[in-house]
């Protein structure tokens, strides 16, 4: 593993986690200095960051991003994702009301919990691993819940309710975009 690879993995992980650009540049400069010092001493990049670069980047991002910002980000992201998934269901089924049953609810809750736990521990799962989590965790929970509880509708979600769920995430996104420093004009 090269220094460039370590820096690229860390940068993408920090950007994914919402660390602001100025902090990312500062963290990259500090990590570059550590990697160069290690190379001068005859050590490898793994000696600096360990065997799991994503876990290293995630722990450093958690240390740099205050808990209240991480909690706010999660509180805005969760309803945004749920609303987005419901909007997709509205579109696929061409309906203004989506019926939520216990199986569907358990499916999304199990995937959400496992994804949050894994991402907090290891960094981003990525698209492929996200599908694996859905297949290995979500589907068995869905089928087991439907077998135990049945497929009765718990509650309907109208189209306007799905749109309403996306608003906190959109508000957070706009706020974060405004907070980000703008590049200087040349």
Task: Provide tags for this entry.
elongated, 8 helices, 186 residues, mainly alpha, two-stranded antiparallel sheet
Share of helix, binned = over 70%
Alpha plus pi helix count:
8
Strand order in the sheet with the most strands = 1-2
Order of helices and strands: HHHHHEHHEH
Overall 3D form:
elongated
Rg computed from alpha carbons, rounded to a whole number of angstroms: 21 Å
Polypeptide structure, described:
- This protein is mostly helical and 186 residues long.
- 77% of the residues lie in helices and 6% in strands.
- It is built from 8 helices and 2 strands; from the N terminus they run αααααβααβα.
- It has helices spanning 3-16, 21-40, 45-49, 53-64, 67-93, 102-122, 126-149, 159-179, and strands at 97-101, 153-158.
- It has a two-stranded antiparallel sheet.
- Helix 6 packs antiparallel against helix 7 (126-149).
- The longest helix has 27 residues, at 67-93.
- It is elongated and about 65 Å long.
- The relative contact order is 0.13.
- The mean pLDDT is 83.
Fold topology:
Layout: H1 3-16, H2 21-40, H3 45-49, H4 53-64, H5 67-93, E1 97-101, H6 102-122, H7 126-149, E2 153-158, H8 159-179
Antiparallel strand pairs: 1-2
Helix pairs in contact: 1-2, 1-4, 4-6, 5-8, 6-7
Short structural description:
The chain has 186 residues and is mainly alpha-helical. It has 8 helices and 2 strands, in the order αααααβααβα.
